[in-house]
Amino acid sequence: MNVSFKTGFLLMGFSDERNLQILHSVLFLITYLLAIMGNLLIITIITLDQRLHSPMYYFLKHLSFLDLCFISVTVPQSIANSLMDNGFISLGQCMLQVFFFIALASSEVAILTVMSYDRYVAICRPLQYETIMDPHACKCAVIAVWMAGGLSGLLHTGVNFSIPLCGKRIIHQFFCDIPQMLKLACSYEFINEIAVAAFTTSTAFVCLIAIVFSYTQIFSTVMRIPSADSRTKVFSTCLPHLFVVMFFLSAAGFEFLRPPSDSLSAMDLIFSIFYTVIPPTLNPLIYSLRNEAMKAALRKVLSKEEFSRRMVYVKAIFNL
């Protein structure tokens, strides 16, 4: 491939074989479309159904928007590279990819922490719920989530792309992955990035501790509820969130905390899918299947009566 790496990098992807590249692009495209449709459906349902205008679903809507953006950072570029049999990515594209990837991943950890606190207040302090989780507090929490993610993205991007590179600009991954990029750095030149990564990891660990504390209190309270139906209702809203938290954090933690290696195996590439592609695709399914309110709202939105009513409303708007 005759390209100049002075202005970009070469993403190796999953394979050099053309048939496997096509297969990879098709599978990624199907997964991407499922993730887009699932998260857009969650956002639409929560927006249209007045019964879901509560803090829990307000945060879930933002989580779905984060997932939609998160998977859009890496997957479309990977699909295009496979279809064109060209793994080149420009410096500007790589910088944007790193910024948005880190910013959205950090925001996702933050919003999951906020959601766990919301469940803690709702179950352990129900009489104070409306006071603590009032609309102004929810908006401030979401603003803090986005600001924290943006700051993390700026720090990592600024430090990572200020490091001198001594190796060939070949990244053994399907996106601009910071651990893989650090392997291209000159010796001892990436100490600043390690410091930023340590700060980000420490912050993520604090979030994990907060989530564990919240769910310890939640389960302690739930087990004291005498009614089995009430316990089932609480678990139906808490377990999906807990599963999403553990899946995302364990996959990301394994990738970023494991010892660095000079080579990247096929299993390493496949495992990276578990924190970049799978969570945004599965989250809508997990929340919609385990949540009775979401299933009821979904049936209502998809019903013929509701569809007809929306069509009449749309026609009335266009006739104005």
Automatic annotation (TrEMBL):
GO terms for cellular component: membrane; plasma membrane. It is a multi-pass membrane protein. InterPro entries: GPCR_Rhodpsn, GPCR_Rhodpsn_7TM, Olfact_rcpt, Olfactory_GPCR. Keywords: Cell membrane, G-protein coupled receptor, Membrane, Olfaction, Receptor, Sensory transduction, Transducer, Transmembrane, Transmembrane helix. Pfam families: 7tm_4. It is found in: Cell membrane. The chain crosses the membrane at residues 20-46, 58-75, 95-115, 136-155, 190-213, 234-257, 269-289. The keyword Membrane applies. Its main location: membrane. SUPFAM superfamilies: Family A G protein-coupled receptor-like. Odorant receptor. Belongs to the G-protein coupled receptor 1 family. This is Olfactory receptor.
